[in-house]
Design goal:
Mean pLDDT: 93
Strand order of the largest sheet: 1-2-3-4-5-7-6
Shape: globular
Strand content: 35-45%
Protein name: GCN5-related N-acetyltransferase
CATH class of one domain: Alpha Beta
GO molecular function: acyltransferase activity, transferring groups other than amino-acyl groups
Distance between the termini: 18 Å
Radius of gyration: 16 Å
Largest sheet: 7 strands, mixed
Pfam families: Acetyltransf_3
Amino acid sequence: MYSLKGQKVYLRALEPSDLDFLYQIENATAVWEISGTTTPYSKQVLEMYLENVHRDIYEVKQLRLCICLLDNTVVGLIDLFDFDPKNRKAGVGVIIASEKHRNNGFAAEALELLCGYSRVTLEMHQIYCNILEDNHASIHLFESLGFEKIGIKKDWISSKGKFKNEILYQKIFN
């Protein structure tokens, strides 16, 4: 079994006590263009989501984990989505909620932990991510961890009356 604990952060399953944190992230309009969200989530809807979050990745094709500091402070979320066990691949997304927690290596370590878990425990062959071309911090993060740029989806996301390109990155495990 692969450890989900690093030097700065650890990853854990969502708990009912994470409702307010989840509500804050899901309703932050600044990240809606990344997540594809167009309307706010109610606490009731998120409570129902939390009631079912324990379901197996093989059943729901998604795994969402909290990124926690070693003092148990929740600082972000990391997801595997579109899990495809037959082809041993999934998408990955990561968010650090607060500006004060960004650029401290938390997302990088969380992503390294999730990559190790994906490779060893889930026996995945690859993971991929989609990053908007103007999200330089995410591009730097994923490239620094060995993700390769493999394509550009032109005019993929409509944002504030303009279209943005989305870059597809991929990491194949050896």
